[in-house]
C-alpha cells in the first residue's frame, strides 16, 4: 500500500499541516503549500438500514499501530515519530495486519498550534492547586500528541407528539385547630398535549471506544461549521484513531439524545401554560436522516505518577483542557486543617459573644429583651 507523504520542493523535507496558515508547511525551510480544497459541500449520506449494514472500508494511506497497553488502534503516517499511545502512554507496535478504514467524509482541521498547547497545559496544571508541586515538571512536549478522534454525525427532521400532565398552583386559606389562619399552596393537575417539529443538525456521537467518554464530553463543544471535505493533507504530522463504534450503534445513541431533546422541548412548552409538568411522553418519527463520518482534532497525553496513569485532553479547536490528576495528601490535609481552624474560630467567637451577654446586669438584660424592635416596614413608619 502506497503511503501519502508530502515532500518540500525546496529542501526535500516532509511537509506538515500548519495551524497558522491552514496549509502544508515545511518545518525546515518554511515553504508553504496551500491545500487544494474540494468544491461544494460535505457529502451527507442517506441513513437507511441497507447503508448501516453495507458500509465498507476504502483504500487508506497510513499504517495501523496497536497500543500495547490499552489496545487502541491508531492510524499514523510512515514518517510519524509517535511512539507512545496518547491515551495511556504505552508503546505502539505495528499491527500484524492492516485494518480496514472508512475514509472520512470531513475533517475539522486543528485550530490550536502545537506550541500553544504546551502553555495551555502548564496553565491548566497551575490551576490544579490540590495537585503535588512536582507535577508541573512532568510536561514533555514530545508526549503531547495531536490526534484526530473519529465521530459520526447525524441529521434528521423530527415530527413528534407529546402528552403530559400540567399543574397549576392555587392558594387555599383555612383556619387551623388553634384558630389561626393558614395558607397552603395546592396543585391542580390537567392533561395536556401538543406537537413538535424540529431539525437536528450534526448530532455528534464519538466513534471511539478507547477514549474516555466522560473526559471527551468535558473538553467541550466542537463547531462543526468549520468541518471541511476530507483531504489526507490535514493529517500530515498528526495521527488519527480508527473508529471502533459502528454506524448502527452510534445511530441508536443519536436517537436517544434526540428524544431527550424533544422531551426537554415539550417540557418547556408545557411550562409556558402551567406552573409544573410531569409524566411527559413523546412519540417521534424521524425522516430525511443522513450521516457523515468526520475527524475532530484533539491533543492527548498520558503520564504516570507514583505508578498510576492519568490522561489529559485538549480540544484542538477551542483549546479547552480537561484531565485527571493526582491529589496531594499533604495539601488535602492542609485544606481540612484550615476548615477546622475556621470552624473553631467561629465557635470561639459565638461562645465569647454569649458569655458577654450572660454577664450583663439584670436591668440591662431586661431592657434588651423588652425593647421594641425597630425594623423598616412596608408602611414607611420605621416600625414593623
Distance between the termini: 88 Å
By DSSP, the count of extended strands is 15
Our Rg estimate from Cα atoms comes to 31 Å
Biggest sheet architecture: 12 strands, mixed
Strand and helix order: EEEEHEEEEHEEHEEHEEEHH
Structural class: alpha+beta
If helices are DSSP runs of H or I spanning 4 or more residues, what is the number of helices?
6
Please explain how this structure is put together.
The protein is 23% helix and 33% strand. It is of the alpha+beta class and 384 residues long. The chain has helices at residues 49-54, 114-126, 213-218, 247-270, 329-358, 362-370; strands at 16-18, 23-25, 32-33, 45-46, 63-67, 73-76, 92-94, 106-107, 145-175, 181-206, 228-229, 239-241, 276-305, 308-315, 321-323. Mean pLDDT is 78; it is low at 56-60 and 362-384. The protein is built from 6 helices and 15 strands. The strands form 2 sheets. Strands 4, 5, 6, 7, 8, 9, 10, 11, 12, 13, 14 and 15 form a 12-stranded mixed β-sheet that branches. The protein has a domain at 37-160 and 191-327. The protein is flat, with a radius of gyration of 31 Å. The relative contact order is 0.17.
Amino acid at each position: 500500500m502506497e503511503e501519502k507523504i508530502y515532500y518540500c520542493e525546496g529542501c526535500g523535507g516532509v511537509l506538515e499541516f500548519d495551524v497558522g496558515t491552514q496549509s502544508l508547511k515545511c518545518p525546515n525551510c518554511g515553504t508553504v503549500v496551500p491545500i487544494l480544497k474540494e468544491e461544494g459541500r460535505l457529502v451527507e449520506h442517506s441513513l437507511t438500514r441497507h447503508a448501516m449494514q453495507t458500509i465498507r472500508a476504502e483504500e487508506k494511506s497510513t499504517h495501523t499501530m496497536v497500543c500495547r497497553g490499552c489496545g487502541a488502534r491508531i492510524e499514523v503516517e510512515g514518517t510519524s515519530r509517535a511512539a507512545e499511545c496518547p491515551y495511556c502512554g504505552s508503546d505502539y507496535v505495528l499491527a500484524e495486519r492492516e485494518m480496514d478504514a472508512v475514509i472520512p467524509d470531513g475533517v475539522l482541521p486543528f485550530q490550536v498550534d502545537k506550541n500553544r498547547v504546551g502553555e495551555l497545559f502548564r496553565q491548566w496544571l497551575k490551576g490544579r492547586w490540590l495537585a503535588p508541586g512536582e507535577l508541573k515538571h512532568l510536561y514533555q512536549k514530545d508526549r503531547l500528541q495531536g490526534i484526530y478522534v473519529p465521530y459520526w454525525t447525524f441529521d434528521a427532521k423530527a415530527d413528534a407528539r407529546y402528552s403530559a400532565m400540567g399543574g397549576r398552583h392555587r392558594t387555599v386559606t383555612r383556619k387551623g385547630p388553634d384558630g389561626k389562619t393558614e395558607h397552603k399552596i395546592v396543585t391542580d393537575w390537567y392533561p395536556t398535549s401538543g406537537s413538535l417539529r424540529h431539525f437536528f443538525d450534526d448530532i455528534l456521537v464519538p466513534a471511539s471506544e478507547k477514549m474516555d467518554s466522560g473526559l471527551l464530553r468535558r473538553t467541550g463543544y466542537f463547531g462543526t461549521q468549520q468541518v471541511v471535505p476530507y483531504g489526507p493533507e490535514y493529517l500530515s504530522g498528526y495521527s488519527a484513531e480508527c473508529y471502533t463504534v459502528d454506524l448502527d450503534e452510534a445511530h441508536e445513541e443519536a436517537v436517544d439524545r434526540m428524544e431527550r431533546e424533544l422531551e426537554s422541548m415539550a417540557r418547556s412548552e408545557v411550562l409556558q401554560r402551567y406552573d409544573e409538568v410531569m409524566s411527559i411522553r413523546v412519540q417521534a418519527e424521524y425522516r430525511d436522516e443522513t450521516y457523515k463520518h468526520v475527524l475532530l482534532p484533539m491533543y492527548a497525553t498520558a503520564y504516570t505518577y507514583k505508578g498510576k496513569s492519568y490522561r489529559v485532553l485538549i480540544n484542538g479547536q477551542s483549546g479547552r483542557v480537561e484531565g485527571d490528576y493526582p491529589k496531594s495528601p499533604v495539601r488535602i490535609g492542609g485544606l481540612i486543617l484550615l476548615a477546622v481552624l475556621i470552624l473553631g474560630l467561629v465557635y470561639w467567637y459565638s461562645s465569647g459573644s454569649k458569655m458577654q451577654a450572660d454577664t450583663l446586669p439584670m436591668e440591662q438584660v431586661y431592657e434588651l429583651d423588652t425593647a421594641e424592635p425597630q425594623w423598616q416596614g412596608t408602611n414607611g413608619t420605621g416600625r414593623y
